[in-house]
Specification:
By secondary structure, the chain is mostly helical. It has helices at 4-20, 22-32, 37-53, 60-75, 77-93, 102-120, 130-142, 148-165, 189-206.
Length: 207
Amino acid sequence: MLNAEEVKNMMIAVSDAVIQNEDRLSEADRQLGDGDHGIGMTRGFTEAKKQLEALDPASVSQVFITTGMALMSSMGGASGVVFGMLFQSGGMAIAKAEGLDAQALSTFLNASAEGVMNIGKAKPGDKTMVDALVPAAEAAEVAKDNAIHEALAAAAKGAHQGMEASKDMIAQHGRARAMGEKCLGHPDAGTVSVSVIFQAASDFAVA
């Protein structure tokens, strides 16, 4: 189990990973959209890192809610809303958790996926971040009786597989929708971000 301070440090590591992958995220977006996804994500996670570093967390829930609110307030646009909702929905669902264990991670991710789908009106197969988030949640559900580092590794693998699978989907939302079959072969930029986030969290847990 990770305590609140460890989860705070995990989310700082996640923030660093997103910032380091700015060019990769923007390049993924350039194939299907306007190419600014990495810039927005970097802006959001720079603000999240700043707020987290100043936080003396009382709970793991507070860490995630702080992250979500920072993303929403600093990113703007649809990405700010859905990535903010990922952390806020999940954080609220584990409000009573004493730490982040595999069971809490599963609860967090199920709530995250539901929150993002509700606010973004996207479903699996629409070529959005949902296509990485739902497989991550499903993998964490299967691993909910395991150690937290194993559950995070499972979630990261699920997110990566979802990102890869999004290459074979035709976009139903955003600018990429107008591309039709031309978007085949390219992953959705949001799925790349979700994969980066959970890989960084997994790497932190095993370090």
